[in-house]
Amino acid sequence: MRTPVFELHIQPMFRAIDRDHMSFTMDLWDYDDVVTHADDIMERLEQDMPPLVSGGLWPEEWIALFKRWKEGARKRLELGTATYELTRTATRVEVSATGTFPAAGYKGWLQLENSTDTSKTYVLFFEAPDTPGAGTPTTFAVEERYRATDTRTVFVRDATGVHEVV
């Protein structure tokens, strides 16, 4: 069974209304806040959160997933580092990231984080293996493609900051 990851499995279960209702005490979309308050969150999920007027209690599967994450490694994604390139052709735009993972067994990808009328911002995420693997770190090349008619400025956020990709 896969180890739950905060950004992939836990954070998406907290809706915007849940976050808003709890903002007086914590940010349910912030990893550190959720770790700090994990026992309190678990207790409330098992009793009365979210309230019926806000959609009602979580399904048992969601509560079990949160509990497994809380009692396990409390895994989260890492921001990676890479070299970025933007290629425009007549038919597509391609954003690519190339580099070397920090250790054997890592996975990585570009994920769209924000999109406006004038720009797109991707995040380079790395996921560590559940069990550290033996061997040497591998190189990677990940990419995102979209229509050539999209002329927005492209940025990538990674462990070193936000970069405009040209």
Task: Report what the structure shows.
It is a single chain. This protein is of the alpha+beta class and 166 residues long. The protein is 24% helix and 33% strand. Strands 1, 4, 5, 7 and 8 form a five-stranded mixed beta sheet that branches. The chain has a three-stranded antiparallel beta sheet with strand order 2-3-6, with no helix packed on it. Helix 4 (38-47) packs antiparallel against helix 5 (60-71).
Category by helix and strand content? alpha+beta
Rg computed from alpha carbons, rounded to a whole number of angstroms: 19 Å
Counted beta strands? 8
User: Which word captures the global form?
Assistant: globular
Beta content comes to 25-35%
Distance between the termini: 40 Å
| Poorly predicted ranges | none
Helix and strand element order: HHHHHEEEEEEEE
Count of helical segments? 5
- The residue fraction in helices comes out at 10-25%
What is the typical, i.e. mean, pLDDT? 95
* Main sheet properties: 5 strands, mixed
Number of domains: 2
